[in-house]
């Protein structure tokens, strides 16, 4: 795990070596163990690498690394989990192949030398972003893993381009960066800026599963349209539809699910440094931790975060799970004051505005884990891969139950019922729970009911999905903007899958890549901690799409195969509870401990400095949230994260 950056520039009057060092120093937290560089002044190419040593701790793993054939230079960030299989394949293919060490980077570089990049990329099972310089052709290729676990930002003008694992080095490279107002709109609506766009007009993100070839002999400005895919989610979906006949019953599917997950976890436990796991006590993290402990000769170190607000506290569940599994468990309870310093650090940790409020506990658990380990496995992406989100079953029910009712009638119901506050529904629910105690564990009922009323007036599947995932019902950005989520039609126009699977597809290329994976990568790498995601193994993802939907959403139970795997290790009485996300009580904190900070950013004077933000709409939402009549924490947090980022940028 590392940080990479570099540039090509034909501009004169620059100390380019010093510039490279400054750019690389901005990534030290991603790779504090070693700095390396490749410079070809004749070709005007400068590449730097900050190393976090995980495999092959000796100099044999240093980068940028040159191939034995002398043709290629690679700067690599990430892990290739099937590198041992690839190494065996190379040695069987050519007996003359030799290796200096046992790093996955050297295997990747040798694979490219022997098979070529076109044949190598589809073979890779891992998380990565890399630059590959071909000295023979004077060409550089940038590539990113299938799901976008590792980031890669790119800047270009008519005379140069720069790339980096984060935005900070690019901000050093170019001072002429302007805010993309459409990206701000996307941030307000989704809590993130979707790839390939960034907060800046001049910078784009390389899409997951894509490569970008740049000819240096005949260089011209590059943009997001120059990249091309070597793999897409639709590839797994299409293959999965063909393979679904192989499972004759759900039990066979569960057995195969456990087998592929075991292999994935085993591959991600390969490390020359201490490793552990994030454990929230939910289905996904419990499944990964159980499979780790089952394959480990010692107690796996596990880490969880707790809150004194019982509505958000999952630590007691994690502790119970850890006790049964026999892990070496560590827990840390937090209060709002513990979070305050992290709130101010968010713009530096995330580089561009990012507004999933669970970023705060993710940062804290990463810091906590780093005190004990350098690598941590996580349960992220289990929901997107095995159909776990409540919106999948809820969306399906809403579409089937209300889709046949004429839209004008639904409009009337939506407008009327939306006027009832979440507080009103919470009071009603508290009365009902006295009659039906077993539903008392469900939280935020008022907010969920209010959201349900707002989405009743959906026009079609696309509109329903958008209403389910968007924070702002309408834009809070004024002026001319472009909807950046244009790829949604690919999923919803695809034949052969139903509404739930279309939502899963869209989540995989939208929410999962741009929110979940971004959140975890930036939080963990800010403290030099590598996180690994077993659910995003190539074989696991393909297997999940091989399964019929009814095997994943089985008799109303989401993630049915995972639940069955977990039941082998943990009693159902412990795991059978309402789904709870990894969040923090941001709504209450904004009304109390974080109120002064929020008010300073949301003051009329502060908002008026941004002519493209509808300040009246934002202020009104803020006032509603403060009254407690509605919980608008997500919408407000999205705005706060942009304003906090902008404040850092201007200072």
Could you explain the architecture of this structure?
With about 650 residues, this protein is α+β, with helices and mostly antiparallel strands. Strand 2 and strand 3 (about 45-50) form a beta hairpin. The two termini are about 30 Å apart. The strands form 3 sheets. The protein has a 6-stranded antiparallel β-sheet with strand order 2-3-1-9-8-10. A 6-stranded antiparallel β-sheet has the order 4-5-6-7-11-12, with helices on one face. Strands 15-14-13-16-17 form a 5-stranded parallel β-sheet, with helices on both faces. Helix 7 (about 235-245) crosses helix 22 (about 540-545), helix 11 (about 335-350) packs across helix 30 (about 635-650) and helix 16 (about 420-435) crosses helix 17. The protein is about 45% helix and about 15% strand.
Put the structure in a nutshell.
The chain contains 30 helices and 17 strands.
List its traits:
651 residues; globular; 30 helices; six-stranded antiparallel β-sheet; 14% strand; alpha+beta
Distance between the termini: 31 Å
Percent helix: 40-55%
Helix run count: 30
The major pleated sheet works out as: 6 strands, antiparallel
Q: What is the tally of beta strands? A: 17
| Binned strand content | 5-15%
Q: Decide which structural class fits the backbone.
A: alpha+beta
Rough outline = globular
Could you list the spans in which at least 5 consecutive residues all have pLDDT below 50?
none
Return Rg in Å: 25 Å
The largest beta-sheet arranges its strands as 2-3-1-9-8-10
pLDDT averaged over residues: 90
């Amino acid at each position: 795990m590392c940080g990479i950056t570099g540039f090509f520039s034909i501009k004169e009057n620059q100390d380019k070596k010093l510039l490279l060092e400054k750019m690389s120093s901005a990534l030290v937290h991603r790779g504090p163990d070693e700095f390396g560089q490749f410079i070809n002044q004749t070709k005007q190419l400068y590449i730097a690498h900050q190393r976090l040593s995980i495999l092959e701790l000796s100099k044999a793993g240093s980068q940028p690394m040159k191939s034995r054939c002398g043709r290629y230079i690679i700067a690599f960030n990430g892990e290739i989990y099937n590198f041992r299989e690839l190494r065996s394949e190379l040695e069987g293919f050519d007996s003359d192949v030799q290796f200096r060490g046992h790093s996955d980077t050297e295997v990747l570089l040798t694979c490219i030398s022997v098979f070529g990049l076109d044949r190598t990329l589809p073979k890779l099972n891992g998380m990565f972003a890399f630059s590959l310089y071909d000295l023979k052709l004077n060409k550089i290729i940038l590539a990113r893993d299938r799901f976008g676990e590792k980031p890669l930002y790119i800047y270009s003008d008519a005379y140069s381009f720069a790339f980096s694992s984060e935005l900070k080095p690019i901000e050093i490279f170019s001072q002429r960066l302007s805010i993309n107002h459409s990206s701000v709109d996307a941030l307000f609506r989704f809590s993130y800026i979707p790839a390939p766009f960034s907060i800046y007009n001049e910078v784009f993100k390389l899409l997951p599963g894509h490569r970008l070839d740049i000819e240096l002999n005949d260089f011209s400005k590059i943009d997001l349209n120059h990249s091309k895919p070597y793999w897409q989610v639709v590839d797994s979906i299409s293959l999965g539809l063909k393979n679904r006949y192989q499972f004759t019953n759900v039990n066979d599917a569960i057995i195969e699910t456990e087998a592929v997950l075991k292999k994935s976890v085993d591959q991600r436990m390969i490390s020359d440094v201490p490793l552990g796991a994030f454990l929230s006590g939910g289905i996904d993290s419990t499944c990964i931790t159980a499979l780790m402990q089952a394959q480990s000769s010692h107690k796996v170190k596990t880490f969880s975060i707790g809150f004194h607000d019982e509505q958000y506290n999952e630590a007691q569940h994690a502790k119970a799970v850890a006790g049964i599994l026999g892990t070496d468990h560590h827990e840390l309870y937090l209060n709002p004051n513990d979070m305050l310093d992290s709130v101010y650090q968010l713009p530096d940790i995330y580089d561009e505005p990012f507004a999933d409020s669970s970023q705060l506990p993710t940062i804290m658990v990463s810091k906590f884990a780093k005190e004990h380990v350098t690598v941590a496995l996580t349960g992220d992406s289990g929901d997107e891969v095995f159909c776990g989100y409540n919106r999948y079953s809820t969306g399906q029910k809403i579409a089937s139950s209300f889709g046949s009712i004429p839209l004008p009638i639904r409009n009337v119901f939506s407008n009327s019922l939306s006027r009832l506050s979440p507080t009103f529904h919470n009071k009603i629910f508290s009365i009902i729970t006295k009659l039906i105690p077993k539903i008392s564990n469900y939280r935020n009922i008022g907010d969920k009911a209010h959201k349900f009323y707002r989405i009743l007036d959906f026009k079609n599947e696309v509109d329903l999905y958008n209403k389910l995932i968007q924070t702002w019902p309408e834009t809070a950005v004024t002026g001319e903007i472009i909807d950046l989520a244009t790829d949604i039609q690919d999923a919803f126009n695809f034949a052969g899958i139903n509404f739930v699977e279309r939502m899963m597809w869209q989540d995989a290329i939208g929410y999962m890549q741009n929110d979940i994976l971004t959140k975890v990568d930036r939080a963990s790498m800010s403290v030099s901690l590598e996180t690994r995601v077993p659910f995003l193994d190539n074989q696991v993802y393909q297997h999940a799409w091989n399964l019929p939907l009814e095997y994943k959403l089985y008799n109303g139970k989401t993630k049915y195969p995972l639940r069955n795997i977990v039941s082998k290790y943990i009693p159902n009485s412990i795991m059978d509870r309402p789904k709870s996300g990894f969040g923090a009580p941001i709504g209450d904190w904004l009304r109390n401990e974080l109120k002064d900070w929020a008010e300073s950013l949301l003051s009329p004077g502060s908002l008026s400095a941004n002519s493209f933000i509808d300040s009246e709409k934002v202020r009104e939402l803020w006032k509603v949230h403060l009254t407690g009549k509605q919980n608008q924490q997500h919408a407000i947090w999205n705005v706060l994260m942009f304003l906090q980022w902008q404040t850092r940028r201007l200072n």
